[in-house]
Known about the structure:
about 425 residues, CATH 1.10.630.10, four-stranded mixed beta sheet, monooxygenase, oxidoreductase, iron ion binding
Amino acid sequence: MSQTELYKTFSPFYDFLLVPSPTRIFNSDPSLESVITANPLNVEHILKTNFDNYPKGIRFITLLQDFLGQGIFNSDAHLWKVQRKTASYEFNTKSLRNFVLENVTVETQTRLVPIFQKSAKTNRVLDLQDVLERFAFDNICKLAFNVDPGCLGGDGTAGGEFMTAFEEAATLSSGRFMYALPNLYKIKKFFNMGSEKKLMDSIGVVHEFADKIIKSRMEERAEKRDEDLLSRFIGTDDNSAEFLRDIVISFILAGRDTTSSALTWFFWLLSSRLEIQKKILQELETVRTRNAKRTGETYSFDELREMGYLHAAISEAMRLYPPVPVDTKACKDDDVLPDGTIVKKDWFVTYHTYAMGRMESIWGSDCREFKPERWIENGTVKQESPFRYPVFHAGPRMCLGKELAYIQMDVVLRHCWKESPGRAAEDPDTFR
Length: 432
Ligand code: HEM
């Protein structure tokens, strides 16, 4: 199901469920009792104050283990901590940021923009979500292990197979959460039948592709310290090839369809808001002139940061359409949330980012309007509390790729709106 279909199907349910009353308890099945909340105080408690009591938990980890192994996305406690420590350090280095900036700029200039230009010239309708997913997949593979799968524009033969298998493995793994009988998947897996057979086949393709790269990179090792994440993890500890594979797969999963989803919604929202397009163009032109850049020239990380209005508009799009609309944790020991809700050991606790983005109590009476201005205070972009806006999660497990995701989105949007004063509102070809 595409993101758009998903929202169309579930948004009336989300709205009905949470906006009037921000915490509910569900007990449809005694083994799956859960609390669902959209209260920022509860979110802070779960994600930060009582962090140790709300891990991913055994159920989540077991269901995703075949695909993700023990990577950062699918581990708790010590195993999570060691990966988080190395990754946090690396994600904060200037060299990683520049590596991403460089790769995203090349991918945008040489693949994405030409596709848009061609479609504009020939009046061909594009599936924007598909194009952006391919774009994001190429980018995240470059970042993870410096491989270009060429899913967008390139030859893409081997990479295309990898991407398809990766998507299938992700979809079928999350399908395991949907069984009415939670252990049914184990029986199907044991007999290697149906969706479990398909899942194992696609995991096989993903693992084979990753293993080859990891093996050759481990042989080259140490002398060359590449900029990608795999090389950084090879260089730091004595990790096994299997553990390195888990790490790489987790990163690809984390960065794969989050940015593409955010960009797709952003384009969709902007397509009917010429006033906002115009303001974005004006800002791009101001930044270009201030930094004496030629049209289309590459921008540094700091120059991208000057585009406050663009940044605000991206955050605003993700408020209404968060790429990760809900997120679930397991409760380790009985607890009471700040609003008085009782949570029992082994219950699931879900915080609802989508509903939180549409609550009057958090965003005011205009909460359903797309208004980038709400992010601007005294001429600069306001830092919103991550507990009111948990689009990138919050607390010790907060998204590591937040800054890189903004770099990607800024670069794409800047190149898609070539700076040219006064073009926006009058010109329907603004995206070309
Ligand atoms: C708009 C883009 C993005 C959004 C909205 C987003 C959002 C999130 C959210 C909600 C989580 C928590 C998920 C959970 O509880 O399991 C998360 C975790 C994570 N994200 Fe992102 N993400 C984005 C892009 C990226 C990118 C590009 C990367 C780069 C590789 C990345 C790397 C990670 C990692 C490694 C984690 C796991 C952190 C941990 O468990 O310690 N994300 N992200």
